[in-house]
Automatic annotation (TrEMBL):
Pfam families: DEAD (PF00270), Helicase_C (PF00271). Keywords: ATP-binding, Helicase, Hydrolase, Nucleotide-binding. CDD domains: DEADc, SF2_C_DEAD. Belongs to the DEAD box helicase family. GO terms for molecular function: ATP binding; hydrolase activity; nucleic acid binding; RNA helicase activity. PROSITE patterns: HELICASE_ATP_BIND_1, HELICASE_CTER. Residues 220-364 form the Helicase C-terminal domain. Residues 368-441 are annotated as: Disordered. Residues 25-194 form the Helicase ATP-binding domain. This is DEAD/DEAH box helicase.
Length: 441
């Protein structure tokens, strides 16, 4: 590691490199093609940043391309890399979809050494000859298990083909997929596989809970969870329409929440994420657009409003909490059928799914028991001492004097029963009165 990096490493409070940072540094510096597999939150961004920047020459044009699956992750990665690049007088530029193309084109004229972007925007600029890759020596594909699927795979390959034939390749992912075993065939180069998922110790203690809630009551459950002290959560939805319905409802009810979806403008997405990171809002409602790579320091919880249908989806969602040794809580909402399907989906994994219950104003793994009220009869012998009866004075009834001067038996006072009048009986009496009057005539 360069001396500038070592000093900055200690300044940031890091004590020692993580397993993935140690494992890939020498191969990347030595121009080897690398596939790095490590758990979420294990420092993969820094793992490829340090060796990649070490081989760049300031002022020599664009030499490094980093591809990310989303705008948020591209912006986050560019900020991390910019923090290290300034130590070597290198420039980093983010190229993402949704941003102003003309402004990005103007910034490209400054010939930044590092480009971090989404595949679609990068390929468009390459096709329009606004971005030239003839000096690129290293191409990093982050979240490779996601980017190397469907049409995005063709986009990534087109970018790689636009670079020099001997361009160095780096792939990084938290989960293993079949295509990651076929990189040699797809990219025509031998790729060294480095898997440290078993050796990594950066993951904190994360509890995985199942909270049985029907679809119609999940919004109410989110508001109940906000009553917990210091509670913040990233809430994952499957359908954007469901998310918008909940977000609109929370907006009118003044619930501390914001949404992060792909149809929002980049400025809106950045503001929502920044507000959530700084604690100005407590619930960030999102789809799987935020499930990958986003680093939210000390995030207490992740909530699955809609349950994932694939193991990789669950892995990346829950990876947003419990990062870098911090504790975390995962709360999966669903009815009995949904939660049973989730258990089947994750039965081959190491996740321990535990039922959760609301016990007072706290989450608990113990099922609450309803209090039983039982009446215990007091023994007759003990009533005089333990529980004496309370005598209530009773008014004496009026007594009628007899003609002989003695007192007769008390006469009970009759209670006058109030006669209930209704419209029917009143009309009935009036009809009779009218009939009698007609008869007299």
């Amino acid at each position: 590691m360069l001396k500038q990096f070592e000093t900055h490493f200690k300044t940031l409070g890091y004590r020692e490199p993580t397993a993935i940072q140690t494992a890939v540094y020498e191969p990347l510096v030595s121009d080897h093609n690398v596939l790095g597999l490590a758990p979420t939150g294990s420092g993969k961004t820094v793992a490829f940043t340090l060796p990649a920047l070490a081989n760049l020459l300031p002022g020599d044009g664009t030499q490094l391309i980093v591809l990310e699956p989303s705008q948020e992750l591209a912006i986050q990665t560019s900020r991390v890399m910019r923090d290290w690049a300034k130590l070597l007088d290198l420039q980093v530029l983010a190229l993402t979809g949704g941003a102003n193309v003309k402004r990005q084109t103007e910034r490209l004229k400054k010939r930044p050494e590092v480009i971090v972007g989404t595949p679609g925007r990068v390929l468009n600029l390459v096709t329009d000859r606004k971005l030239k890759l003839h000096l690129v020596s290293l191409l990093i594909v982050d979240e490779a298990d996601d980017l190397l699927t469907g049409e995005t795979l063709d986009t990534v390959r087109s970018i790689a083909q636009a670079a020099p034939a001997d361009v160095q390749l780096g792939f990084f992912s938290a989960t293993d997929t079949p295509i990651l075993h076929e990189l040699d065939q797809w990219f025509g180069q031998t790729v060294e596989r480095i898997d440290v998922r078993e050796q990594d110790q950066t993951q904190g203690v994360v509890r995985h809970g199942l909270l049985q809630v029907g679809m119609g009551k999940r919004d109410q459950m989110l508001k109940r969870l906000l009553a917990l002290p210091n509670f913040r959560a990233l809430v994952f939805f499957k359908q954007a329409s469901t998310l918008r319905h909940t977000a609109t409802k929370f907006y009118h009810e003044h619930v501390s929440a914001a949404s992060l979806t792909s149809d929002l403008r980049q400025v809106q997405r950045e503001k929502a994420l920044q507000d959530f990171r700084q604690g100005r809002i407590r619930l960030l409602l999102t789809t799987d657009v935020a499930a990958r790579g986003l680093d939210i320091p000390k995030l207490p919880a992740v909530i699955n409003y809609d349950l994932p249908t694939q193991v990789n989806e669950y892995v990346h969602r829950v990876g947003r909490t419990g990062r870098m040794g911090e504790p975390g809580q995962v709360i999966s909402l669903g009815d009995d059928h949904d939660l049973r399907d989730l258990k089947k989906l994750l039965k081959e994994t190491d996740y321990e799914l535990v039922p959760l219950y609301f016990n007072g104003r706290a989450l608990s793994t113990e099922r609450p028991v309803a209090a039983k009220t039982t009446s215990v009869a007091t023994p007759v012998a003990n009533r005089t001492t333990a529980q004496a009866p309370i005598e209530t004075p009773v008014a004496k009834p009026q007594q009628r004097q007899s003609r002989t001067g003695g007192n007769a038996a008390p006469v009970p006072t009759p209670t006058k029963k109030k006669k209930h009048k209704n419209r029917h009986s009143k009309n009935k009496g009036m009809r009779k009165k009218w009939r009698d009057r007609d008869t007299q005539k």
